[in-house]
Amino acid sequence: MLVLSGSDEASYEFAKSLASSLDVSHVKITEKVFPDGETYIRIPEEALKSNDVIFVQTFAPPQDTAIIKTLLVVDTLRDKGISRIRLIVPYLAYARQDKEFLPNEAISIRTILKALRYMGVSELYTIEVHKEESLKFFEGNAYNISPYYYMAKKISVPENTVVLAPDVGALKRAKIFAEVLKTDYDYLIKERDRVTGEIRHKPKSLNVKGSNVIIVDDVISTGGTVAKAAQFLRSQGAKEVYVIVAHALMVNGALDKLKKAGIRKVYACNTLPKINDPIVEYIDVGPYVAEEIKKWL
Ligand code: R5P
Asked: What is the pTM of this model?
């Protein structure tokens, strides 16, 4: 077995940590972009010596380029006779487009997962996909690795803390966290305008006065969800607000939004390119993913 990865920093660093935990070699692909924008990849000869390849590629922005790169790599590995191609996508982009919210929208995650399977991915692993049910679109074995148990063990939490989900969809995530920390947990009622993307929290009485709060979610994209939740919690008398997410995408000025909302710290997994700001602290989940993968060796 060996670990092959994209050469972008996030995929490379994740794969390095994974390979060292699995005690196998790690090789990166050669990649470049042609002047017209097309993607070029080449697989080093040494990666073709094993018949069992784990390819690591995160779908960080620009997601479409990362997906094309993955399809090119998987097809090439298959063409070179590799029989077992396991794909680890630390951050699975498009997972939030998992149904028709408005009529005739594309169910984009279905298209991506079908394409990966068709191209020859034997097994797929990802970290905290938006909704686990969407992995059914991959017609083979697909595994979602939830990092919250591991993350909860890695951070130190102040006394008098409550765990909150920013919407009902994130409640099961908050529950895992609260169980490890032995704290109470609850959720907010969020409404998002499907056209403008605007978020509102419905009034709900919460017992957070004088408490520290940890908001647990799967992803911070524009930061709107957690920033609004933090503002709401502060209006209810919460002290410090911390955020735990699997994926810190941080697009469209998210960092500023979080700072303005008074968020003390964001803990995120190393599934995406790192943001160099002391507010964000990364937890390397490579060793945890290695342990999970060993279950399916
Ligand atoms: C929504 O259901 C997700 O779990 C996240 O809460 C959401 O996608 C985060 O996006 P943003 O940071 O743009 O609010």
From this structure: 0.95
